[in-house]
Write a structure and sequence with these properties.
Belongs to the adenylyl cyclase class-4/guanylyl cyclase family. By secondary structure, this protein is α+β, with helices and mostly antiparallel strands. It has two domains: 1-33, no CATH class; 34-220, 2-Layer Sandwich (Alpha-Beta Plaits), CATH 3.30.70. Helices cover 37% and strands 32% of the residues.
Length: 227
């Protein structure tokens, strides 16, 4: 009985690494997981600058080892914040705050603190086959409504949908090395407690939305994450 309990706990822990607890609970009861609408969440995307050329100069095993080092570092850091890691796709890392558990107006603040932490942390990630090299992160953040739900029944995935996801992805792709690019919606959400150093970037062209005013998130006035 003890062995069975232990095995069951291991299986549950593994499931909770892949799906939110509330979603896993519904799936275990063989319930259909209903898609849910969220009025306000904040979404973070990042990727590695020059990843294609770095990968081209490595063996497949070295690429996996490098990404594993990076994501183990990131995964351990984000546990300090009220965020949910949605997925990694190659060198892209996607995190959200405000779902599946709603956290009022805290989501932008949580993602902002986390992103400053990750941009500082990436400098400390050691790449075994590039001892003198350092990875650089490009990050983007956007705040807005979205829908979340489970897609598929083989390897079910908890996915986010909506224009907010696309815009967050676009802020990331138009960002610069070691910079955190935020939308005006995230800027407005962060203004409430005046805790951040933010600089106007200007206007960027967003596909299907026209010109959008964006900003650089430079730091937090109350604490430093450089260590």
């Amino acid at each position: 009985t003890e062995d069975l309990k232990r095995e069951r706990q291991l299986a549950e822990d593994l499931l909770h690494q892949m799906l939110p607890k509330s979603v896993a609970k519904q799936l275990r009861k063989s319930q259909k997981v209903e898609a849910e609408n969220y009025d306000q969440v904040t979404i973070f995307f990042s990727d590695i600058v020059g990843f294609t050329s770095i990968a081209a100069s490595c063996t497949p095993l070295q690429v996996v080892e490098m990404l594993n080092n990076l994501y183990v570092c990131f995964d351990s850091r984000i546990e300090s914040y009220d965020v949910y890691k949605v997925e990694t796709i190659g060198d892209a890392y996607m995190v959200v705050s405000g779902l599946p558990e709603r956290n009022g107006t805290k989501h932008a603040d949580e993602i902002a603190k986390m992103s400053l932490d990750l941009v500082a942390a990436v400098r400390q990630v050691v790449i075994p086959h590039m001892p003198t090299g350092r990875l650089q992160l490009r990050a983007g953040i956007h705040t807005g409504p979205c829908v979340a739900g489970v897609v598929g029944y083989k390897m079910p995935r908890y996915c986010l949908f909506g224009d907010t996801v696309n815009t967050a992805s676009h802020t990331e792709s138009t960002s610069l090395p070691q910079k955190i690019h935020i939308s005006s919606a995230t800027y407005d959400a962060l203004l409430t407690d005046d805790a951040y150093e933010i600089e106007l970037r200007g206007e960027i062209e967003v596909k299907g939305k026209g010109k959008m005013k964006t900003y650089w998130l430079l730091g937090n006035k109350n604490y430093s994450v450089q260590n």
